[in-house]
Amino acid sequence: MKLSIVATLYNSESYIAEFLLRASNAAKQLVGNDFEIILVNDGSPDKSLELSREFTKNNENLVIVDLSRNFGHHKAMMTGLAYAKGDKVFLIDSDLEEEPEWLLLFSKQMSLKNCDVVCGIQEHRKGDLFERWSGIIFYSTFRWLSGLDLPKNLVVARLMSRRYVNALLTHMESELFMAGLWVITGFDQQPYKVVKHNCSETTYSFYKKISQFINSVTAFSKRPLLGIFIIGCFIFMISALWAGYLIVNWLFWERPPNGYTSLMASIWLLGGMVTAFLGIIGIYLSKVYSETKQRPYTIIRNIYKSADFREG
Fold first, then answer.
1. Which of 105, 93, 95, 132 lies closest to 192 in space, CA to CA?
2. Where are the domains of the chain?
């Protein structure tokens, strides 16, 4: 098979029909009828599964991978990639904020550059002021902490070669951060500037964004642990100097320290820092605990194809 198109479903019922039409037309222009469209239902609470199953009746190129519950966007994407069989794999969101027709542009770029990946990059991040600034802070902080050259304003849409997808699937983490995995997998990856539309409300709440940030940093960076060590050493040095001053002061001048304000402030400051540091260490330990259990990152409940209806 020449091409696989992979997308996830979550609150996507209003977009499925147009997405399938546009994705199919783009794929036919590129490879004829030698393609598949894989939609991964990530426990969508609306009628995305029912509607997409109806489309499989008359679309032999369509495959629905139904997960047993909501596992998260990144894990659903990896499940779709694992099921894809195409020589090239086009990953994209199904909400039409990313255009299915980018497939043709990405394919042309891949041929010109002779690369393994063409990935979409927003020249200007979409959304309101909070979404734009939170994105800037996230990418800047992640690059500084992880040391990875993560492109700014990266979107989901990307066209990948078979060997790149196979290499990507060798990562066995149960807690996934796809943008980081895309980068560390390597190969020749070329950006393509795109304009992402604002067609739907984001499903990433403020809490989800914070959780993703913590997960991404702890998955790809040891610097928070190094920072704890450095700050601990700094506090120890300051404390030692202060203790030395108090001893000298007591031996030669006999002037006891005045008041308890500085003492209580120091106790609360150090207590808060110790609690925060223990929390950071706890996050790393919880990730180790999660990985050692070796649980699958998704569970597939069923797979639907047009052949199922013909056999029935």
1. 105
2. 3-220+296-311, 223-292
Partner residues linked to 90 by β-bridges: 5, 159
Q: Is the pTM of this model over 0.85?
A: no
Given a contact cutoff of 8 angstroms between Cβ atoms, the answer to whether 168 and 182 are in contact is yes
Cα(86)–Cα(237) distance, integer angstroms: 59
DSSP structural state of residue 24: H
How many angstroms separate the Cα of 20 from the Cα of each of 17, 32, 49, 93, 186? 5, 15, 14, 12, 31
Residue stretches of the chain with pLDDT short of 50: 260
Predicted confidence at residue 28, as pLDDT, reads: 93
212 vs 75: CA distance, rounded Å: 13
- Cα-flanking dihedrals φ and ψ of residue 4, to 5°? -125, 135
How far, in Å, CA of 24 to CA of 21, rounded?
5
Q: Does domain 3-220+296-311 have CATH number 3.40.190.150?
A: no
Q: What is the pLDDT of residue 213?
A: 65
